[in-house]
Amino acid sequence: MFSYVKEDDYKLFFQITVNIFHDSFKTLIGSEYYAFLYHASVKFLRHINTAETLMQGSTWNYLEEEYQYEYFDQSSILTLLRTSYENLVTIAYLFFGDEDPKKLKLYQYCGYRNREKFKIKITQPDLIKKMEAEKLIIQSLESELKKLGVIKKHMDDWKPKSWYDLGIDCQLPHILCNNYKHWSSHTHTGFDSLMQVNASESYSIELQKETNSVNYLFLCISLAFFIKNFVEVLSRLGHSDVENYDLSDIEYFLKFCNVADTINKNVESNNT
Predict the structure, then answer these.
(1) In the structure, what pLDDT confidence band is assigned to residue 123 with cuts at 50, 70 and 90?
(2) Which of 77, 112, 140, 200 would you call most buried, defined as having the most Cβ atoms within 10 angstroms of its Cβ?
(3) Mean pLDDT, to the nearest integer, of 221-243?
(4) Per DSSP, what are the bridge partners of residue 59?
């Protein structure tokens, strides 16, 4: 039945999600904790949007009669699906449960530390000042984390588990988590990634589009999970328009995903 999830379903879910998201700006930015959710959501939704745009087909730019050079960029689409999954897991882990300053501060700390590791020679005065300011932020965050009971050796990574396991813990639909490894195989330069490109090149553009229409399922699952939990955050923050949001289609779809997950778990259990 998942094969019936098509482009029109995606359009509906995307419209619902983006309209609610844009309506949330003042509420999120006004919260010290959830302001970061706004920026994380921008990244997530832009990756989703770009992946779907590529699903319409691509051409080589700046050539005469570009339409003659149309191709289907499956590798980039799946790379964006992988990144979207990681963004969604990050958002769910940091913001869709109870507020946890320890998680968020460790996430910030690791981000600043990663920037600090870039060994490049800086000569511009404004950038020098920025780097010096960020060093102070790192020191401050490290001090706060120690007060929250985080020891230094546990400050190397904000993510306590693998992307797959963390997605399961954050209650993302299993069908989404299970495809993460497949998407990951398209992001590296191993020979198997070239085999995948070679295989796709043997099919027509239209056949590739039809075959890859299954990705509308994953886009819809990602959007549905995101916006349902996003609205719950807005409700906790007292957002005035929450009661006006119609998520009936979203909620019905997620119930269907949960039923499918239960069936798949039972099948896997019977096969072991």
Answers:
(1) confident
(2) 77
(3) 96
(4) 70
Residue type (1 letter), 107? Y
Question: What integer pLDDT is reported at residue 204 of this predicted model?
Answer: 86
Residue 60 has a CB neighbour count (10 Å cut-off) of 10
What pLDDT shows up at residue 268?
A: 67
Tokens of 27: 């509420």
Task: Render pLDDT for 42-72 as a digit per residue (tens, 0 to 9).
Answer: 999 999 999 999 999 988 888 877 667 788 8
Q: In angstroms, how far is the first alpha carbon of the chain from the final one? A: 25
For residue 58, the SS3 value is strand
| Residues 90, 224: Cα–Cα separation, whole Å | 16
- CA dist., res. 190 & res. 156, Å (int): 28
The sign of the dihedral angle between the CA atoms of 52, 56, 58, 63 is negative
Spatial contact of 145 and 109, defined as CB atoms under 8 Å apart? yes
Is pLDDT at 3 greater than 70 in this prediction?
A: no
Give the integer Cα–Cα distance in Å for 265 and 256: 14
Rounded to an integer, what distance in angstroms lies between the CA atom of residue 85 and that of residue 164?
Answer: 9
CA angle 65, 195, 205 (to 5 degrees): 30
Half-sphere exposure at residue 54, Cβ-oriented, CA atoms within 13 angstroms: 20
CA distance 196 to 171: 30
Q: Are 25 and 38 in contact (CB under 8 A)?
A: yes
pLDDT of residue 69: 76
Q: How many CA atoms lie within 13 A of 84 on its CB side?
A: 27
